[in-house]
Amino acid sequence: MDRGKDLAEGSSCGGDPAVATTAPSRYESQKRRDWNTFGQFLRNQRPPVALSQCNSGHVLEFLRYLDQFGKTKVHLQGCVFYGQPEPPAPCTCPLRQAWGSLDALIGRLRAAYEENGGPPETNPFASSAIRIYLREVKESQAKARGIPYKKKKKGGSGKPDDESTTSSIPFS
Prior knowledge:
By secondary structure, the chain is mainly α. It is 40% helix and 2% strand. A two-stranded antiparallel sheet has the order 1-2. The radius of gyration is 19 Å and the shape is globular.
């Protein structure tokens, strides 16, 4: 993400010294930055997109846009290092946003949407299209690195799963 504009944001407590304020948590600050970045992305669309008109397609476009700022090497299927967790040499495969970063981002934006007055039933960050996209990113990145992800069993025997399993995506 472009962090330049984030540095200029600062927070204001309204200037009343009688009102004691605490600094927002790291999570709250990140959520506000992410929300502002997404809003800027919508405003930069041609034509600009009003938040009330935003849908999962705009969210998917935003996630793909963010890939250009990624730092995670994701090997393509034709790469000699495809499927190797620790390749021995550099290659020309693209850098992408890591699945975990995208998953956390969507969680923050989903919360911010509702905190900013968006109705939960129309939250574009909670749509099935986003869940499917995140699952596909997770699986493709795991294959590219040669790391098997196993689905957790629903219900089950009560014994803990091994460390190679993943948690479910926190959407209901």
